[in-house]
Design a protein that fits this description.
The protein is mainly β and about 240 residues long. About 5% of the residues lie in helices and about 45% in strands.
Length: about 240
């Protein structure tokens, strides 16, 4: 899949209104770079960034597409893996051969509707949160299916930051689904792709990041990409991580 850095067009088209929480209107954002077009479902409103915690937060990479490699992808929040059973080839295998690519040229969004209480005596209210994201393109390079215990997001993967000493450090904990609990065993076919979203952290300090997927005895790293983070919070987190090691 070839993705160029040349921006062709970014525009919004309003689709059929759909209630999502409280007065939320579903829109489509269409972003194209040469041979690749992403149609992203979003909610009207102001976007924000993910907050870096003082402790490692659990990783969260929501799925938004699973299927064949093509020129145009419709990204949805209700995405799921193929329902077709891959037979014995779809069983969990110790060999994992993936290509993971974070493309910072696409500026996407991820919508979450949260319920919360304004005060102890108040009734429950809903809040629409729109996070700024980058797409993660993950391709199965094997000649057979790969089975993944999942639940609408990518498990076994964390975000890493490059420290000042050049060492790569996990700043998130991996979500490892078990088929007997809250996950399902789903399959990605050979040469298929799935697209997830990387929620971007808030901050103004430029840092290098990458993703690390680790399953069985296999570790796969994404490309190195640049993004921003709150430097003060990051340093506190790194100091705490170092004290635990």
């Amino acid at each position: 899949m070839k993705i160029s850095v040349l921006l062709i067009s970014i525009f919004f088209t309003c689709c059929q209104q759909k209630e999502q929480g409280q007065n939320a209107i579903l829109l489509e954002k269409i972003v194209s770079y040469n041979n690749t077009t992403l149609i992203d479902s979003i909610v009207q409103g102001n976007s924000e960034f993910y907050i870096l915690d003082s402790v490692k937060r659990q990783s969260y990479f929501p799925l938004c597409y699973v299927g064949k490699i093509k020129d145009t992808y419709l990204l949805t929040e209700d995405c799921g893996f193929t329902s077709e059973n891959c037979g014995s080839a779809g069983a969990e295998q110790p060999e994992v051969n993936l290509k993971i690519f974070v493309d910072t040229n696409f500026k996407l969004f991820y919508y979450i509707n949260k319920e919360h209480y304004i005060s102890q005596k108040s009734s429950k209210v809903q809040k629409n949160i729109i996070y700024n994201t980058f797409p993660i393109f993950i391709t199965n390079l094997k000649d057979s299916c790969i089975g993944f215990p999942t639940y609408r997001d990518i498990g076994y993967m964390v975000r890493q930051v490059k420290a000042k000493n050049g060492k790569w450090i996990d700043i998130e904990t991996s979500k490892n689904y078990k088929c007997s609990t809250d996950g399902n065993l789903d399959y990605i076919k050979p040469k298929q792709i799935f697209i997830a979203k990387l929620l971007r952290y808030e901050g103004s300090a430029k840092r290098e990041f990458r993703l690390k997927f680790q399953r069985y005895e296999t570790t796969v790293y994404s490309n190195i990409f640049t993004d921003y983070v709150d430097e003060e919070k990051l340093l506190k987190l790194l100091q705490k991580i170092e004290s635990y090691n």
